[in-house]
Amino acid sequence: MSSILRTTALRASTILTRTAPAAAARPISTSPALHKTVTETVKDAVKAVDQTAANVAVKGLETAESVTEQTKKTLGSTTSTASEQASQVAGKTKEVGGDAAGTAQEYAGKAAGTAKQYAGKAAGTAQEYAGEATGKAQEMTGSAKGTASEYSGSAKGTKEEVKGTVKGKANEVAGKAKGAMNEATKP
Known about the structure:
Elements: H1 2-19, H2 38-75, H3 79-185
Helix pairs in contact: 1-2, 1-3, 2-3
């Protein structure tokens, strides 16, 4: 019975580990995680299922041993009674085994459901963080474009200012040169 649970748990954990890289977004927050990870929760669920199945199996074995001991005690009385009791023991053993198998399947189903639930939550959280990261990136891109545009306008203004200053100085120098020329040509 325990091998069935382990196989089911292994399949569930394989599914989770195969989907984990897609859900492995890095959170922007720097605070420590307050909850268990999906893997830890699934491990706990599988351990609980395995423990319950083991307890049911042990109880079934103890019942079978008890019935076997009673059968051995009564075998001394008659052969026909022994055959009847052996049949009863076999029936009781099958019944306990069936109960254990049913319980194990029930808990395996619950564990698989829980694993799927947490995998879905993890995927949703990953998508949420991916959306937040995309939004932040777009915000930063817009901010960078605005700043670049601002500096571009400032540079153009400074260029025009320098250009005007240079023209003014050139005109001033040209005026002084003409003045000096006129002074030099005067009789």
